[in-house]
Write a structure and sequence with these properties.
- The protein is built from nine helices and no strands.
- By secondary structure, the chain is mainly α.
- Helix 4 runs parallel beside helix 7 and helix 5 crosses helix 7.
- The longest helix is centred in the last third of the chain and has 22 residues.
- The two termini are about 35 Å apart.
Amino acid sequence: MPRVAEDRPPAEPSSPLQKERYRRILRAAAEHASVKGLERVQMLDVARDAEVAIATLYRYFPSKAHLFTAMMREQVERLVVSTAPRGPGEEPEDGIARLLVGIGAQMLGNPLLAHAMLQSNNAIVAQAADAGVTEVFIDLMLTAGGLAEPTDRDVRLLRLIEQAWYGILMTALNEHIGPEELAADTELMCRLLLRGRDEPMPS
């Protein structure tokens, strides 16, 4: 598991110049991770290829875990904007499954980068640095499922779906199951967890 740096909040870019530097860092990091994998990515190499000072990189990303979690968050935020709600006749589980199957297929296309993002997000969450991408990811699933007024039970179920889907995806990234099984397991998991969403929540 990647190391999370000391407890200090990463800086947020505000000016257009800072945002461009931030994007360059993410692009350079993605290129390195896609070829090398997380463990072999060197922050100095990322800073060099992004044409920023190493101090600038560490100001925005105190560790590799912060760097690749930010990358995952950015990708999920882009999907929030572009994701259409479930279509006519679709149940919430159908729209959410369609979304997750699509993301899973994309991640299998770049397994080293996917590993880097998932491992980093898990490290951030495990060490209580922050919630990782959970809140943004739940918003994405709410949109895909057409759940405009989610109940507490809906949100709990979506958290379970997120956790279960990460496990299925990691199994596929480790080549223990193939793309077809990834899709089938994702669809089954969504149906099983969401078909009882209208039942009373246990106390």
